Amino acid sequence: MTFLWSNSLSSMIYCFLSHPFIRLPPLFNLPFRQNNFNAVRTSHYPNDTSFYRLCDYYGMYICNEANIETHGIQPFGRLAHDPAWKEAFVSRVTRMVMRDRNHPSIIFWSLGNENGRGPNLMHSRRALHNLDTSRPIMYEGGGKLFESTGRTELTDVVCPMYPSVGDLVTAGTRFDEDRPVILCEYSHSMGNSNGNIHLYWREFWDVDKPRLQGGFIWDMIDQGLRKTDNSTHREYFAYGGDFGDEINDRQFCINGLFSPDRQPHPALSEIKRLQQPVSFATSHPFGEKVIRISSNYNAQLSIINRYSFLSPSHLKWTWSVTSDEHELPLASSGFHIPDSLRLICLDLSEAFINVSTCEERLRSKYWLNLWGAIKEDTMWAKEGFLVAADQFCLVLECDSKDSLGCNAKGILSSCSTGSAGTQVLESVEDDLTIKVTLSGMNVKNRPLAVIDKQSGTLLSYNLPGGTPVIEYSNKDNPKQIKGGLQPNYTRAATDNDKGGTELISNFLSIYSFLLYLDRKDRSYLYYWKRYGLDSSSTVASICQHIQAIKGHNGKTLDISLNCLTIETKRQRELFSNKIIYKFCCEGNLRVKVKVKPRKILSSLPSLPRIGVSLMLNKSLYNIKYLGRGPVENYPDRNSGSDLGVWTTSAARMGYDYIVPSENGNRTDCEWISLQDRDGCGVCVYSSIDTENADGFIDKDDNIFGKMNCSVGMYSQEELHAANHTIDLQPRPNGDHPIYVNIDHKIMGLGGDCSWLPCVYPQYEIKAKHEFCYSFCLFPLKPDKDPAREVKAMAKKSDR
């Protein structure tokens, strides 16, 4: 049995959840069960008795923890050795056991939290065994300074706190150990967090590591308190320091999977997927979620049932096939999994009735989606509630004779090869700007584009009809351009980005010193500030060279720029950027970027991101994209986000964390469209990062690639400067320009803990080599669907 744990900390907000002495409502346990959790640790004290009755009723397991915590007493573990405290230790443990031992939901006892190791705890263990020997004991303390090892003689379960995945594997494969391994705390959910958690669950589910049996995520609820701002009368969730208290840990209790009003964080969809009781697999040797489909359209899958007492047959199963052109499925149908079945074969032919040619097979992407839902009402969920889901990429194979002459690359052209009438592109240059005009457009009114010659920033980009798309502002400082299209290497720091030895030193200087000796590092934000890459620093772009080159018959115009990104405070060069803007007379714009970090950045643990930022017209708030969704996801937290076409808006694409930070990203995006209420707008699609000796794609053709996208109502600088949601003025759709990030790469979130850097190397961005990427923007008319327009451009380029 693998345990899917959460630490339970709660506060009474409008009487919705628990204060230890208030009777809990019957719905208390639903968030646990409905998100595939099966156990709770009552950290760090026993709960009200009604909680245990609810867990008995709903079938939740409990690790019941004694009300003993002494980690603030130095030296660590001193009270556990002090004979004067023996009775206090023993009585707290025995009173807990005597009160709660008749609850079947309790399967573990805990001697407390972070008390070190000493005789008083051994006396407590013996006293507990005198009352109950039917349940094992979990206790993490002792064996090592501070966070300890979780594998002393005091515990029956190896239960370390916040180990890395590597340390987890080591604990579960030691030859001198036979106790099960259950993490007492892991995946610290502080703000935008819970990266890397899929790596833990890869090990938990590994049949070759049977002693690895799950862990308790820290924790369930953000412990913020609702407060009203006196000046605006707006409500927000407050934390340490917001009540006149001078000694506090600020937002260190804002670390749950749910907000105080029980709204789920985006990370919860990832965790629910990883912990689900049923999943599927293919015969692929490396576990890839890819199914090859031949002409019979059959998909064969093996069933992985992780229920202890049930079979998958008690769920109602449905499959659907979606494509890269449609948000709605091409087809869907129910299917049944008999009790003893371990292999299923699904007939998907219904989804491909209209897919008759090899070209259609190779140009489109298809996904098989599987859902398992509750068949009938239960005590914890209504009929139709989703329990398990999975997705597989479908690869449609062609007969060799059908594939002759069929181009499978899906090549896109940023410019049409056809005629665009008599219109030609011109460049009009003055001391400050280069204006790109299309014959018939009024230069003084709205040219196709304006490029700032001093910074290289694309100040504006307008559709051929004159509708503005990209905008800028310099009203606060004429020399500082906000908006436009310009390289972006920063992000609004998350709580995990701020985690490092300098954070720990604020409240535990000895620990900080020991970590320093152990070669632990400072936070990512510390290094970003040091080199001017945090969102509060000022960087400037200086254009060293700019050249306009007109293409054949004036149908294209290339503007090539060589720019430097400078940290203004110390005038240090950070990046050299080679940018090519390729304009086409249809209004299409292709952007090629080559980024070379300067040597000074080679010591950085990771760059925040590599990409561009744009400020768009406020009317373009309707969003559709092809990528992972529907909620935000990041490179190290996207296992629970499915690929497909998703619809959202600028005001809804992100998430309002109690402490504002980087948010709203979508990974594996191929295109994103932004349109106004009438359907007029722009589409951005990505290219693959193949390159020649100069760092650019050899041909004018653009091959589909992947990018990260985020759209929101606030700039990175505004998010970084805000401490509470109240610090950001409400901006509904259509009331403010829109901020867009198109990223070649973005650093992961991390999440092993929030007080040390913990993004894994594969999700960091090392500034030790060049980066090359490309993307295109093209106009969208009201009656045009972005997915089909992108496909149409692919077909057009083959002619």
Automatic annotation (TrEMBL):
One of its GO terms (molecular function) is beta-galactosidase activity. InterPro entries: B-gal_small/dom_5, Bact_Beta-galactosidase, Beta-gal/glucu_dom_sf, Gal_mutarotase_sf_dom, GH, GH-type_carb-bd, Glyco_hydro_2, Glyco_hydro_2_AS. Gene3D superfamilies: 2.70.98.10, Glycosidases, Immunoglobulins. Residues 442-776 form the Beta galactosidase small chain/ domain. It catalyses: Hydrolysis of terminal non-reducing beta-D-galactose residues in beta-D-galactosides. PROSITE patterns: GLYCOSYL_HYDROL_F2_2. Pfam families: Bgal_small_N, Glyco_hydro_2_C, LacZ_4. Keywords: Glycosidase, Hydrolase. GO terms for cellular component: beta-galactosidase complex. SUPFAM superfamilies: (Trans)glycosidases, beta-Galactosidase/glucuronidase domain, Galactose mutarotase-like. This is beta-galactosidase. It comes from Ditylum brightwellii.
